[in-house]
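Now for our specimen.

. . .
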Amino acid sequence: MSRVQANLLLLLAAAIWGGGFVAQSEAMEWLGPNWFNALRFALATLAVLPFALTENKRATRPLSRRELGWFLLVGLSLLAAQTLQQIGIQSTSVTNASFLTGLYVVLVPVIAVAFLRRRPHWIIWPTALLTVIGILLLNGGSLSSLGDGDVLVILCAVFLAAQITLTPIAVGISQRPLALATVQFAVCAAGAGLAAAALEPISMGAVASALPEILYGGLLSSGVAFVLQIIGQRYTTAPQAAIFLSSEALFGALFGAVLLAETLPAIGYLGCGLIFSAMLLVELVPELTRRRATAAP
């Protein structure tokens, strides 16, 4: 597979994830956030499980308790992120949710600095400032206008950044990426299911009404897009992959405008542009710096 084809697969994955924001928003007409997460992650688990079983047959040893502990930690991070996002999307727009969720691109290196004691590239600090300004403009020029939904989605981005930081550690220890995917989806399904059973009513009629959104979230957003991501990242560089995948924010805004007729004032679109610029800069500048240093005599 060529790099161009791989990048197109990653772009398709990003488009699927962007559409997932619309599915998540629409499903809230019939289901509570925990029931939606429980059902879609149960489907996602079933979608990825055959690949994980094939991977397991090729493995030379079973998973250890330590590796399963790392998988559980990744799953709990994803569960916290998706719960906050799903609750938050009830009271914010798809456009806001897609761009605020994308903050994980900037937050991942910040977490590496804070917890892994890795020396940051200088671009981290200006992009962090650019992100704050973008959030400010996205919400009309005042942090006081941040709604509860926006705050929850920003917290979601923090937990997503933690999940992204932990994932390569877990995969590096186990060399079992598909097993990790299956376990983390199962953790999300179980955790959301327990919360849903305790807190939210449900009926078969509600499930039937939300079935297209559940299928999209479970099979496409999680199952298909995850496989596309794994395939694509085998044939392209990490910085290029991050750029194409972060375009899910743009696709989320596009689908929100086309399917839900969402609009933003001009200052809000400027905020979207600043946030997306920060996402690109935090990936591109370190890679360009590394290439120049390698090429220098």
Notes: The chain has 13 helices and no strands.
